[in-house]
Amino acid sequence: MTLQIDFPPEKEKEVMKALKSLGVTVSKQKVNKEKQRILNSIKKGLEEVELHQQGKIKLQSLDDLINEL
Q1: Which domain of life is it from (predicted)?
Q2: Which of 38, 41, 42, 59 lies 20 to 30 Å from 8 when distance is taken between CA atoms?
Q3: Pair 48, 57: CB distance under 8 Å
Q4: Is the backbone of residue 40 left (phi > 0), alpha (psi -120 to 50) or beta?
Q5: Domain ranges of the chain
Q6: Measured distance CA(59)–CA(53) in Å, rounded
Q7: How far does CA 19 lie from the centroid of its chain?
Q8: Contact status, residue 31 vs residue 39, Cβ threshold 8 Å
Q9: Pick the residue with more confidence: 65 or 51?
Q10: Cα–Cα distance, 64 to 25 (Å, whole number)
């Protein structure tokens, strides 16, 4: 069976140690920089939507965005 997991780079040593202690065979696959940039951008956008839904920030309206162009 194959399982893909994503975790923050600073947790790599911890995660690898835990997996190896379970006898899991680990192969690392690096995400290319462009793909990582896109994923980070999407993540940031989703976080902003969540903050907006919680009433913590106000997002720009579509009309305001179009007027800026």
Answers
A1: Bacteria
A2: 59
A3: yes
A4: alpha
A5: 9-68
A6: 10
A7: 21
A8: yes
A9: 51
A10: 52
